[in-house]
Amino acid sequence: MEQIEEKEIKTSPLATRGGSNSAKNRLFDEDRAVHDWYRFVLSFPPHLVRDYLGKWGVDGHKRVLDPFCGTGTTVVECKKHGIPSIGVEANPTSHFTATTKVNWSVCPKEILRTAREVMQTAQAQIQQEPLCFRTLPHDATILLLKDSVSPLPLHKVLVLRECIEQRGDKSRFPHLWLALAKTAVETASNLKFGPEVGIGKNKQDAPVLEAWYRTLEGIVADIESMHDLAPIPATMIHADARHMHQLIPNCSIDAVFTSPPYPNEKDYSRITRLETVLLEFARDKKELRQIKKGLLRSNTRNVYKEDDDDDWVRDFPVVQALANAIESRRIELGKTSGFERLYGRVTKLYFGGMARHLADIRPLLRPGARLGYVVGDQASYLRVMIRTGEVLAEIAESLGYKVMSIDLFRTRLATATREMLREEVVVLEWQGMQ
Ligand SMILES: C[S@@+](CC[C@H](N)C(=O)[O-])C[C@H]1O[C@@H](n2cnc3c(N)ncnc32)[C@H](O)[C@@H]1O
Description:
The structure is a single chain. This protein has helices at about 20-25, 30-35, 45-55, 75-80, 90-100, 110-130, 140, 150-165, 175-190, 210-225, 270, 275-280, 285-295, 315-335, 340, 345-360, 390-400; strands at about 5-10, 65, 85-90, 190-195, 195-200, 235-240, 255-260, 365-375, 400-415, 420-430. It is an alpha/beta fold. It folds into two domains: about 5-105 and about 230-265 and about 300-430, Vaccinia Virus protein VP39 (Rossmann fold, 3-Layer(aba) Sandwich), CATH 3.40.50; about 110-225, no CATH class. The strands form two sheets. The protein has an eight-stranded mixed sheet with strand order 1-9-10-8-7-2-3-6. It has a two-stranded antiparallel ribbon with strand order 4-5. Strand 9 (about 400-415) and strand 10 (about 420-430) form a beta hairpin. The longest helix is centred in the first third of the chain and has 21 residues, at about 110-130. The chain is globular, with a radius of gyration of 22 Å. The chain starts with 5 loop residues before the first strand and ends with a strand. S-adenosylmethionine binds near residues 88, 89 and 241.
């Protein structure tokens, strides 16, 4: 992949607070409750969701959908404001995370009591068997980025996992498992995110049990403070946003706020790989491949021979022109690797997949429904600029949506091309089938 270094630059508009781009994407201190239980590096901030739902007059009588809901920023924010919501997510790790983050109907005392008992058992085991490190099976280990986690912190995480498992599976004590995922990434691992996932400083040891317990104390405090909002419905569906209309009642959605993947060569399954392996959502290559197949094609690592999303943009000149420009640039530069040869095709698959999704959800929308899609420009494919928001708006229009605006959320400077990469909110309205 052609690396384009991106720099944030100062710009004004949209967000309610903070002048700089990083401030716009920041999680404000007062928003930490629940959102902070586990956050995905590519999440948008809760205040963005709030701003748009507020502007559209969405209240507790309406229903919001996030079809690419990731770790649940939209659904959590809705629940905090008493708004019923539905989240759809194809990656089982993110689906589990979001499901747990909207589960406030648990007994806080029971969670903490169980956590204390688990911690004592784990502590005793770690002290008793200091030299006998637990490891992951080979098939799972090879899914991880090399050196993701050092032997001792991994041992502690695996002992902790074993002790949690003795108490109950992921459906019995989801919060304990979620805290394990967070601790594994933030405390135990050597991973760094920025926004690409990579390997940072090697941690020989880490206070895994203590961090896990502290996370649970935070979770429990939030559940106690959110007690009155626990009954607000927030339904999570594990599904592919390109094929989901049968899972949700027709004409039941008043607003959509979401951020799909961007066509930028990021392997979304890589960002959550450690948690995916530790929570056993993927135990080998076959299971990982199955997960990737359920995701929108946004990078050349998940393109398959049988893919046909590109059919949806076959007669769409802008997308065809982009794919042709990428392919011509590849030939001109003499780039011949298998991945480079797929750059044009994945661009068509990406926009085709988004077209498929936008067509699929139409029956679910009430006439007058507002939709906000947060997307970013990209120049990852041999520096050919993809104005994602503009192309998406054109596709939406061709499918019967009205394009209300394309709002600038923030900008990044691609230092290699000196061009501005815009991150935008494409605002659409569904007026019903004409
Ligand atoms: C930019 S992230 C969304 C982040 C989210 N706003 C949050 O708060 O964490 C895009 C998400 O779309 C998911 N995704 C990708 N393809 C999908 C598909 N076909 N159906 C449903 N979800 C998909 C990815 O797994 C990822 O979690």
